[in-house]
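Example: Cytidine monophosphate-N-acetylneuraminic acid hydroxylase.
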Amino acid sequence: MYRTGRNRFCVPCPDAWAASRRYLLFPRGAQPGTSVNPGLTTAICTGCGEQVEVGMAVLSFTAARCHNKEREHASVLIQSGFSLYASQEEDTGALLGEKLNQELLGPFLPGMEQSLEQTTEILLCLSPAEAAGLKEGINFVRNKSTGKDYILYKKQSHLRACKNMCKHQGGLFIKDIEDLDGRSVRCTKHNWKLDVSTMKYINPPGSFCQDELVVEKDKENGLLLLELNPPNPWDSDPRSPEDLAFGEVQVTYLTHACMDLKLGDKRVVFDPWLIGPAFARGWWLLHEPPSDWLERLCQVDLIYISHMHSDHLSYPTLKKLAERRSNIPIYVGNTERPVFWNLNRSGVQLTNIHVVPFGIWQQVDRNLRFMILMDGVHPEMDTCIIVEYKGHKILNTVDCTRPNGGRLPMKVDLMMSDFAGGASGFPMTFSGGKFTEEWKAQFIKTERKKLLNYKARLVKDLQPRIYCPFAGYFVESHPSDKYIKETNIKNDPDELNNLIKKNSDVVTWTPRPGATLDLGRMLKDPTDSKGIIEPPEGTKIYKDSWDFGPYLKILNAAVGDEIFLHASWIKEYFTWAGFKDYNLVVRMIETDEDFNPFPGGYDYLVDFLDLSFPKERPSREHPYEEIRSRVDVIRHVVKNGLLWDDLYIGFQTRLQRDPDIYHHLFWNHFQIKLPLTPPNWKSFLTCYEQSRAEISQG
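Written out as structure tokens, the predicted fold is:
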């Protein structure tokens, strides 16, 4: 058994072994045969995405088993806080304890020890005089040799330390002039505040904890700042680059974040979003994908999907693919929220999904392997990938804010990353207070410039041979989102590439749909005219029409659903959502296309402190948000138990808040942590009918 994440265990699937083998789930400390009622936990088979309900009354007979008999599966992922044991079915009293039988798990464990190792890095050395000169409270210090900044907090003899880098988007902290106690610092980017005495962010409240460094005294009473890290996992089993023949490695851009890689006789595709919208109806493709995109997908050897956002995990695209080749191998990282958490309800029939651990090479053939890494800021959902062919590395950081905690391989042959910005409802969908049109325009301009400089600096630091900006080619093309389209100005990839070329010798590539980069040629001679083959003259680059109809029809179908005939759906939904004990009052208003109240729509308050639904705002001190949502999207989200990214990132809301504070716990819950299974609306309607019948009979 090996632990792969928070309350997460990855174990071989029983379907791959003899029927006599079983896995048993027990709460910690339970004895075989003990009758308890832990409720059902969920296992997801990584071979097919099949969900298995686990957890019966008599635990000694509880088994995690995938019921899909069409194929043997590699493993089952148990999402639970339970301990995991193995036993023979014929000997139900045998309890093997915390460690699974090595005979069973041995073949699955090689390399796991390497992935758990830590290394110690000295980030800063302070001389005895410098250490003695530290004042009480906050100290800003710099390593003069590296230029890196740190914060030390001193309280009598106790010291705490961290990097001077905001966990949000890497901004620099400065003294918080509003802090009278001398414990907090403020980020220069977005005014996030960190209490360095606790290493917890206080604005937004309840959001992140800062990664803390180890402070040690040396023999002369100086101080060392140490960082404990896992080793750079790509350095395990290093391979020297071999010569590449022309045409042996080719990278073809299809659209947005979708790349088609030819690697010898294998083909790999990243994040295929090629038809339909993303985030309900808010995002549409900017580029026209090549006309043969579906044939290309059907011929690949494997697909990598970085995360669950619908501009990367596109169910409309995968539905077309599954109709032709449902067993295509798809690989995703072992994120806290499974990438394919909604597969069963999507209507897409995919039977060969593999969830792999982070930082472990996955061997495809003798020459080709890949490794999936997690994001340091959003490890619960974001991932990136390194693909290596004959020792040549291709790094795709996708949407990660701090991929692998900021540690990445240097001098890769090809690096690609996002660049555009604009992938958020902030600040375009906000109004009231400071959110004037002038303020929003200046904020967007400033943030885009910061993002360009950050990406250029990252590329300069990592020194890839070639850099390609991608994963930002979307447009708010629906007519009702004209305001967002005009306001949400995105970065120009050519502007970023020009900035990179000013500061480094890195070769840059601004891709167009169907363009192909020949890695062997470009590494040998970046000026080779055949190194990048552009699409044929006359090829359509930008989309000028989108098929809105079928997708809007799906959303509109939810508006008249029977659920919403009964006002009690509000309590049912928010009880299911499970967010409470937080001092926040939200007013939810269903609207038309122009965010005016929808005739006959719902307008209600939710008090998340006690999860009540008052008629008026409570008299106590409380933060307040008003969320106006287009009725078709909010009802589609509610009915299907979907995440609120469709609303927020998809620009389908308009928001006001008082005071102007980002409530991280609230938004993080509704964007990432909602239950994996939707509300039981069938039961809800049945109970409603029964109650109505009892009332009429009484």
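The CA atoms of residues 395 and 415 lie 5 Å apart.
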